[in-house]
Amino acid sequence: MAAAKKSTKRKSAPRKSAKKASSRKYGKAAGKSVEREMKAMKRGTLKSGRSGKKVTSRKQAIAIGLSEARRSGAKVPRKKAA
Questions:
Q1: 13-49 in b/e burial notation, b at 16+ Cβ within 10 A?
Q2: What are the boundaries of each domain within the chain?
Q3: Tens of pLDDT along 31-54?
Q4: DSSP H stretches of helix in 24-57
Q5: Is the backbone of residue 47 left (phi > 0), alpha (psi -120 to 50) or beta?
Q6: Distance (Å, rounded) from C-alpha 39 to C-alpha 57?
Q7: Is 75 within 8 Å of 27 (Cβ atoms)?
Q8: What confidence category does residue 72 fall into, taking pLDDT thresholds of 50, 70 and 90?
Q9: Is 9 left (phi over 0), alpha (psi -120 to 50) or beta?
Q10: Which of 9, 47, 61, 80 is the most buried (most CB within 10 A)?
């Protein structure tokens, strides 16, 4: 009787492929635009759209900066549909 020889070699888990280097979501121009709007908000000179009220929210200042960057053609992802 010939004994079947079992392999002692372990099967390793499949290797995960190396992650692709992610590109920037926002371009440099978009960052500059947001920075400019944040400074204006801190000075108290940033006004919102039609009403012209002073912007006090950090999130709103960022949104205004990104909106301006979009209009000027900078690299900014599209708005998410609500």
A1: eeeeeeeeeeeeeeeeebbebbebbbebbeeeebeee
A2: 47-74
A3: 999 999 999 999 999 999 899 999
A4: 28-43
A5: beta
A6: 12
A7: yes
A8: very high
A9: beta
A10: 61
pLDDT per position as a tens digit, 51-71: 999 999 999 999 999 999 999
Contact by Cβ (8 Å): 27, 15: no
Q: What is the enclosing helix (H) or strand (E) of 71?
A: helix 58-72
How many C-beta atoms lie closer than 10 Å to residue 69's C-beta? 22
- Angstrom CA distances, 66 to 9, 13, 38, 39, 61, stand at 56, 44, 11, 14, 9
What pTM value is reported for the model? 0.66
Residue closest to 76 by CA, chosen among 37, 36, 41, 29:
29
